Amino acid sequence: MTTTDYLISAALILLVIPQMRGGRLTPRTLLLPLVSVSAAAAHYLHSFPTEGHDVQLDLFGVTMGIVLGLASGLATRVSVTEDGAAYSKAGWLAALLWVLGMGARSAFVYWAEHSGAHSIAQFSRDNLITGTAAWTAALLLMAVTQVVCRLVVVRVRAYRLTSPLVTPAVA
User: Transmembrane residues, as ranges (predicted)?
Assistant: First the structure.
């Protein structure tokens, strides 16, 4: 990993700080994680290999991103302020899930470039995964999916709390 790789990984992991501080849900709080993960994808993603079992690897990455994003979104507190604005604040579980997802990808890349290279190469050969481009695509799809799913869950929950069109269920 280069210094740039470490900085990008750290920036994605540190996106948890504004989530834990909490704040109003604004276009900025929507765009910051989307722009960050999109920039990382644009920097690293150069192709989507589809040979062998590369697509299955991508689907696994997407599935893991969905699981982490949904769980993180559900573990985020969403409320309404006195003036009717939506507010969100990530708790410890949401932060842990975020760091787990973002950090695991960085740890995997570090391991792949060091002591795990032989193991990953053997696993790739055994499972018809074509190489580093396939792993890169799967890991980036996981990151993008995690971010998008978390944002969707938080925004839908906020919409349900703030929309006059959504009426609370009568007990």
Answer: 30-47, 59-80, 92-112, 132-153
DSSP letters for 69-135: HHHHHHTEEEEE-TTS-EEEEE-HHHHHHHHHHHHHHHHHHHHHHTTTHHHHHHHHHHTT---HHHH
Whether the CB-CB separation of 20 and 89 falls below 8 Å is answered with: yes
pLDDT of residue 166: 58
Residues 120-130: pLDDT tens digits?
Answer: 999 999 999 99
Q: What pTM was estimated for this model as a whole?
A: 0.84
d(CA 19, CA 127): 38
Q: Rounded to an integer, what is the distance from CA 92 to the centroid of its chain? A: 16
Residues with Cβ within 8 Å of 46's Cβ and at least 6 positions away in sequence, in order, are 133, 136
Q: How many helices (H) and strands (E) does the chain have?
A: 7, 3
Within 10 angstroms of residue 149's Cβ, the number of other Cβ atoms is 20
The answer to whether 101 and 146 have CB atoms below 8 angstroms apart is yes
Distance in angstroms (rounded) separating the CA atoms of residues 71 and 95: 10
Identify the pLDDT of residue 104: 87
